[in-house]
Amino acid sequence: NAKALVFSGIQPTGIPHLGNYLGALESWVQLQEQFSRVLYSIVDLHSVTIPQDPSTLRQSVLDMTACLLACGIDPEKSILFQQSEVSEHAELAWILGCLTSIPRVRHLPQWKVKSQTQKSEGSVGLFTYPVLQCADILLYKSTHVPVGDDQVTHMELAQETARIFNKKYGDFFPVPKAILSATKKVKSLRDPTVKMSKSDPQKLATVTITDSPEEIMLKFRKAVTDCTSAVTYDPEGRPGVSNLISVHAAVLRLTPEEVVAQNVGLDTEHYKRVVSEAVIETLSPIRDEIVRLKADPGYLRTVLDRGAEKAKELAGPVYQEVRRLVGF
Ligand code: ADP
Ligand code: NA
């Protein structure tokens, strides 16, 4: 389909963890093969919705670029770019914001959560960031958007905003579809009832893609399981060991049942070693590649600048047409 276009964004906040890799980045890599037009944006405009240190932000954008390339994002197959380099994102967000009601945004669950975790009431930017997400998606007339289930409500806003715009100004934006990850959420290694998250303060709870083999071994060794030692898959009754099994299955690209069948007879202590070895095997080449890429910030900058040029070639004509439709 010549009209199909995949868009997704990731904030430049820290090194991705195993959940980000298995739940999002791995499928981003696969989508490059399935679609001819694919854009991935490091969404730095979104990062300044909460207090941000300039030199950390600058470094984080390069770090995230290195991580994405190391995971397999290929700048020949995808347009990889830094959001703030394409000014049309913010310009379209303004227009879309004028079509979006305040109560519609106020009722989004993420606003409630995020504004409550801020010390102050939260900025206007934090409030309207879902509108900026709509602009990110619609600016390229995107048709497919890989998202986590926590972003489904924002995807609905993007779909609704496309419809509102089309109703007012004529059929223009395709209504984008969400591509939901098929992978089960990776759980915290310290509390298997919650998802692994970069904001988890608990040491040893989160495996990042740059952890050393020793760190990975240690984190899995300390993973919370239960007092039964058999390896059985029961996400409700035995969330700890089941999380290990689903991580193992994801890195081997097998089903949990196949993984269990291969490991019957092991006790959980031994099984944790088996899982860490499989995770190390998956992450080690990525980690080495990140180290190699980070040593060459000039190359990373070049990738982003070329990506931004290509993104502008797509965004420019769409935005010019939006201006004309709106009457500017
Ligand atoms: P975090 O929750 O760690 O802040 P983000 O919200 O930045 O992560 O998520 C980036 C992407 O990674 C999203 O597509 C999200 O659904 C996915 N993701 C985040 N945490 C996990 C997890 N524990 N398991 C699977 N996917 C995850
Ligand atoms: Na999240």
Automatic annotation (TrEMBL):
Annotated keywords: Aminoacyl-tRNA synthetase, ATP-binding, Ligase, Nucleotide-binding, Protein biosynthesis
GO molecular function terms noted in the UniProt entry: ATP binding; tryptophan-tRNA ligase activity
Reaction catalysed by this enzyme: tRNA(Trp) + L-tryptophan + ATP = L-tryptophyl-tRNA(Trp) + AMP + diphosphate + H(+)
Cellular location(s): Mitochondrion matrix
Pfam families xrefs: tRNA-synt_1b (PF00579)
Enzyme Commission number: 6.1.1.2
Main EC class the enzyme belongs to: ligase
Coiled-coil zones: none
Record-level GO cellular component terms: mitochondrial matrix
Protein's GO biological process: mitochondrial tryptophanyl-tRNA aminoacylation
Family per similarity comment: Belongs to the class-I aminoacyl-tRNA synthetase family.
Function: Catalyzes the attachment of tryptophan to tRNA(Trp) in a two-step reaction: tryptophan is first activated by ATP to form Trp-AMP and then transferred to the acceptor end of tRNA(Trp).
Name of the protein this chain belongs to: Tryptophan--tRNA ligase, mitochondrial
